C-alpha cells in the first residue's frame, strides 16, 4: 500500500534564502526542541522561525542576536530586523546604537551606511533625538 513510487516523492522543496545548515538545524529543532546557535545560523533560523511561525525559536534567536550586538554587526542586524519583522530585535539594536553612538559613528560600517542607505541613518538620528525609544532590558 505505502510504496516509494509516488510522484510526490520526486519533488524537491527549495528554500533559497537560508543556508542548508540553518534549514537542517530548523528541522532538528522542530523534532527535538534543541538548537545550538552560531551568529550566521541565528539569522537563517530567525527567517525560518518567522516564516513558519515558530515563535519560541524566533524569540530565542532574537535573544541570541541581541546579546551578540557590537559596533561591527549593529547595522547589519538592524537592517535584518527591519526586513524580517523583528520588532524586539529592531528596538534592541536601535537602543544599542543610541547608547553607543560615539563608538558607532566612528565605525567604518557607519561611514559606509551614510553612503549606501541614508534612510537607516535618518532612523538612527530620529531615535537619538526621540524620547519615544523603547528601551528593553
TrEMBL record:
Pathway: Protein modification; protein ubiquitination. It is found in: Endomembrane system. InterPro entries: BTB/POZ_dom (IPR000210), SKP1/BTB/POZ_sf (IPR011333). Residues 1-39 form the BTB domain. GO terms for cellular component: endomembrane system. Its main location: membrane. It is a peripheral membrane protein. This is BTB domain-containing protein. It comes from Crotalaria pallida. The lineage of its organism: Eukaryota, Viridiplantae, Streptophyta, Embryophyta, Tracheophyta.
Amino acid at each position: 500500500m505505502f510504496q516509494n513510487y509516488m510522484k510526490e516523492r520526486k519533488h524537491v522543496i527549495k528554500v533559497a534564502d537560508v543556508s542548508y545548515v540553518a534549514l537542517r538545524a530548523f528541522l532538528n529543532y522542530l523534532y527535538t526542541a534543541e538548537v545550538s546557535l552560531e551568529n550566521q545560523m541565528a539569522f537563517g533560523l530567525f527567517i525560518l522561525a518567522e516564516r513558519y511561525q515558530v515563535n519560541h525559536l524566533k524569540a530565542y534567536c532574537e535573544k541570541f542576536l541581541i546579546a551578540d550586538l557590537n559596533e561591527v554587526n549593529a547595522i547589519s542586524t538592524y537592517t535584518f530586523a527591519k526586513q524580517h519583522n523583528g520588532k524586539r530585535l529592531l528596538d534592541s539594536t536601535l537602543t544599542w546604537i543610541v547608547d553607543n553612538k560615539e563608538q558607532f559613528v566612528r565605525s567604518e560600517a557607519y561611514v559606509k551606511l551614510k553612503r549606501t542607505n541614508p534612510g537607516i541613518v535618518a532612523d538612527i538620528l530620529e531615535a537619538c533625538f526621540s524620547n519615544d525609544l523603547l528601551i528593553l532590558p
